[in-house]
Amino acid sequence: IAATQPSTNWHLKENAREHHTSKFSSEELIVRRGQAFTISFNGTERPEQNLIFIAETGPKPSKATRTLATFDISSTASKEGWSAVLQSTSSSSVSISISSPHNAVIGRYRLSVQSGSSSPQSVGTFVLLFNPWSSGDDVFMPNKAECEEYVLEDFGIIFAGNKNHISSFGWNFGQFQRDILNICLSIMDRSLYYRQDPVTDVSHRHDPRYLGRVLSAMVNANDDQGVVLGNWSGKYEGGKNPSSWTGSGEILQSWKKSGFKPVKYGQCWVFAAVLTTVLRCLGIPTRTITNFSSAHDADGNLRVDEFYDADGNHLERGADSVWNFHVWNESWFTRNDLGPSYSGWQVLDATPQEESGGIYQCGPASRYAIKEGEVELDYDGPFVFAEVNADCMYWNYDSATGKKTLIFSKSTEIGASISTKAVGRDDRVDVTSDYKYEEGSAKEREVFKKARKKLGLEDKFDPTAPKQEEIEQKPDISGKFKVAGSLEVGKDLNLLLVLENLQSDAKTVNVNMTAWTTLYTRRRVNQIWKDSISVTLAPKEEKQFPIKIKYPEYQQQLTTDKTIQVTALCHVEDGIQVLVQRNITLDNPGIDIQVLGEAKVNKEVFVEVAFTNPIATEVKDCVLQVEGSDLLQGVLELRIPPLKASEKSSTKFKLIPSEAGLKHLLVNFSCDKFADIKTFKMVNVIN
């Protein structure tokens, strides 16, 4: 190459368009593997003769670890390795098409060029990502609409609440925000795997299976000073309440700004949303999944044991638990290690629940393997299988004697209404049948038995076949809690306890009732109500008993999860105990967003957010938090004056949209009486 340094044209716009990377805000070339990109050199003299290119990544690039490639100009693109093809040449410039292999290591590459015997000259850096649009890639997704949703969509909807009452909220994944890609690359370089053996770690970065597992460990702070610190105590001093976040960008930026100290605090949906951001950013199709009545089986016996005292109080005994809901991820890639039928959606879970291989990581577990009960296949099959299939055992525990008595077992409780956002629409799709055969069907029980057998549990106590003396005793009564009226924060909670005598003789029943505020994991926080009644039920009689828990009774004690557990333990004279239980999630009052006028690129538009205080007392410490990709930079925080009873507040702020298209504006309103009232609004931005 001539003495004058040739200038490089990276053709950022054209390459980004071809490689589906136009949404990144970066001055650096970002391309996808297994697909050609074009660069040109200006001010070169007859360079096409014997030009050699060197592409390298990681700390010690080598051909053996496939982190170093040297290639010269050839007439056609290589199917196997890296290659360069001359596209056009003129007296002052040369244009070259460079292709990477379908299974190239992803990450930031350094590109140099060497002419003849002179020493290599650095051309600059580029970032190589996974390519779901390319049929040779492990993450290839044939459906283009799904690629758009699971890689390019930066807005998501996460489902929460409980199986009787599913709620949802928006989330700004923000995978294309400035610097997020760099932060995702830093996450990989801070993992335990990289710290222990950087060369081997980087050489494995061609494999979505490997990276999915590593990143499931890095998104939680356990073991490795990862991104988010979990907190399920109900007390969030020194950090942000997990339910107050509205997007991943702020979390990832905070992690970097603090010198990579874990961000406080997260719960399951935060871990899942951040992992979605990181994997979509790197090009692995990913979505969040919500499982309702999700089991956390700590001892690996595919069953969850819950204990109650004689008053009906739920006891914190044993490590097993059932969460109202739990959010994890599915990522799309092939499983060459298991075989073709196990490819497709793979479960990853970044919430630190149980160790796997000595650290808090979970997956990838093939969703197909989970449905078929093939729990021995990599990775973490038994834990994921239990999350959707465990049997529930309810015990009465006497702390004085240490005696436990089985009240009843239930095999249809766990893993309901498994949900994800629809492709291209803001709707819920139910994917339960992709995880399990129909609840209560012979096939579902057969798969459960198969899983138990594979885990060597078939000789041990089978929860579906209780002991002989327990089989003979059928309950004499049945009970349930019915909701009467609305389930809203700020209003009294009205329920009916319905008891029915199943026998043809009269029964006397002593009922001990309690209500506790809980976290969404059903961890009890405060008792808010208790009562006991004694009733006589005539043969086959059904009776209803109204229960009222007044707002002032629960207001101080309610957690930001807005969940209450009501339990009635019914002691039937000369019969077995019956446990009646209901987990209730209250709704926040609504909040209204209006866009005032037309939203245009680079033009101011005002938005008005209105909230009416629905309760009879003043609310104070009101804060409005707003974010939305392409609508405003970062997160806007506005303080709002206190609101008297029934008073309406209306707050205006302005947006300057930066890009045309359908965008989502996310709003989160909090005050001392209502936590994290969330809503979102679709904004159509025109040029």
TrEMBL record:
Keyword field: Acyltransferase, Calcium, Metal-binding, Transferase
InterPro entries listed in its UniProt record = Ig-like_fold (IPR013783), Ig_E-set (IPR014756), Papain-like_cys_pep_sf (IPR038765), Transglutaminase (IPR050779), Transglutaminase-like (IPR002931), Transglutaminase-like_sf (IPR036985), Transglutaminase_animal (IPR023608), Transglutaminase_AS (IPR013808)
Repressor in keyword set: no
Catalyzed reaction equations: L-glutaminyl-[protein] + L-lysyl-[protein] = [protein]-L-lysyl-N(6)-5-L-glutamyl-[protein] + NH4(+)
Active-site residues are C268, H326, D349
What EC number is given for this enzyme?
Answer: 2.3.2.13
Known cofactor(s): Ca(2+)
State the free-text cofactor note: Binds 1 Ca(2+) ion per subunit.
Instruction: Please name the GO terms that the record assigns under molecular function.
Output: metal ion binding; protein-glutamine gamma-glutamyltransferase activity
The cross-references to SMART domains, in alphabetical order and at most eight, read: TGc
Q: Which Pfam families match?
A: Transglut_C, Transglut_core, Transglut_N
Q: Which PROSITE patterns does the record associate with it? A: TRANSGLUTAMINASES
- Highest taxon of the lineage: Eukaryota
Q: Which residues cross the membrane?
A: none
Q: Which family does it belong to?
A: Belongs to the transglutaminase superfamily. Transglutaminase family.
Query: What is the protein's given name?
Result: protein-glutamine gamma-glutamyltransferase
